[in-house]
Amino acid sequence: MGWLSDSLDSIRTLQIRHVLTQIVSLGMIVTSALIIWKGLMCVTGSESPVVVVLSGSMEPGFKRGDILFLHMSKDPIRAGEIVVFNVDGREIPIVHRVIKVHERQDTGEVDILTKGDNNFGDDRLLYAHGQLWLQRHHIMGRAVGFLPYVGWVTIIMTEKPIIKYLLIGALGLLVITSKE
Amino acid sequence: MHSFGYRANAVVTFAVTILAVMCGMASLSDNFNSPSPTADVKVLNINWFQKQPNGNDEVSLTLNISADLSSLFTWNTKQVFVFLAAEYETPQNALNQVSLWDGIIQSKEHAKFWIHTTNKYRFTDQGNNLRGKDFNLTLHWHIMPKTGKMFADKIVMTGYSLPEEYR
């Protein structure tokens, strides 16, 4: 009976090794994705270096599902730039164009008014109640680059979570069953 | 080794890489374009000029804007967003930029234009500093590409001033 338990042992160690390798390679994928994201955060200086356009308020320039690359530098904000801003009390950031800038003489603080290219009026209706201007701290970054359609992946995944779970399940199955 | 999944993966990876390289090259090719746009703006009339109840000066202008921006267009240009801003300095503010008019140009054929208009957005100051104020009119443009990096530039036109009295 000795040879049977020997061969069982060898299979067992082989499988453990195989599973361990798979776990390590999966970990490598996850960490390298994290490294790229955090690296982009450092390079661009923006807390979210890439945003997906969710509304049609900037059409025909930016459509729903396009992605924008953001950059946040110390440069002052000027009219005409497309900025991403957060309004107090709203969770989703907005991507619109700056149409008015008033920069203080003594403190350098700015009052900014924005508008979506495709909207009829300016954004005061979107701001918090009674808020007339955006300040520097509302701005998350300015758009510098543009890539069409790629954002649809995230839009579909957030709106149809089933697809996300199916995708994760299928990928997980592939990783577990792959022999190389 | 050469299973279906393996081959499909290789094909998709290759296709995405090629697409990314092509997008990058299309964007880089924009740098070879050295445009020479021209613009001219005339203030034809001060329609009215008053102090609002909240104390801010507001003025309404009639403008004549003519520009030729066709040299900005390349094969990677989706549209050009063009706007005219009044820029001036006040004792309180180092810089005031107030957009007066804007437009979207979607093709090279429409990039040479001539328009007679009143200001589309309100020309309002933060305060009451507009009487007798000298200001610049700046034509800004923002080139939105089909893919890649966005470009922006401007032409500054100087020598405009507002009247000394409300009317």
From TrEMBL, chain A:
Top-level lineage group: Eukaryota
One Pfam family per UniProt: Peptidase_S24
Transmembrane spans: 20-37
Alphabetized UniProt keyword annotations: Hydrolase, Membrane, Protease, Signal-anchor, Transmembrane, Transmembrane helix
EC number: 3.4.21.89
UniProt-listed GO biological process terms: signal peptide processing
Domain Peptidase S24/S26A/S26B/S26C: 37-106
CDD domains tied to this protein: S26_SPase_I
Any one GO molecular function term: serine-type endopeptidase activity
Gene3D superfamilies linked: Umud Fragment, subunit A
Protein location: Endoplasmic reticulum membrane
Topology with respect to the bilayer: Single-pass type II membrane protein
Protein name: Signal peptidase complex catalytic subunit SEC11
A GO-annotated cellular component: signal peptidase complex
Coiled coil (UniProt feature): none
Protein family according to the UniProt entry: Belongs to the peptidase S26B family.
UniProtKB/TrEMBL annotation, chain B:
Subcellular localization(s) per the UniProt record: Endoplasmic reticulum membrane
Keyword Transmembrane helix: yes
Record's bilayer topology term: Single-pass type II membrane protein
GO BP of this protein: protein targeting to ER; signal peptide processing
Pfam families named among the record's database cross-references: SPC22
GO cellular component: signal peptidase complex
InterPro entries from the UniProt entry: SPC3
Main location: endoplasmic reticulum
The keyword Membrane is assigned to this record: yes
Record key words, sorted: Endoplasmic reticulum, Membrane, Signal-anchor, Transmembrane, Transmembrane helix
Function: Essential component of the signal peptidase complex (SPC) which catalyzes the cleavage of N-terminal signal sequences from nascent proteins as they are translocated into the lumen of the endoplasmic reticulum. Essential for the SPC catalytic activity, possibly by stabilizing and positioning the active center of the complex close to the lumenal surface.
Family: Belongs to the SPCS3 family.
Protein name listed in UniProt: Signal peptidase complex subunit 3
Organism: Ensete ventricosum (Abyssinian banana)
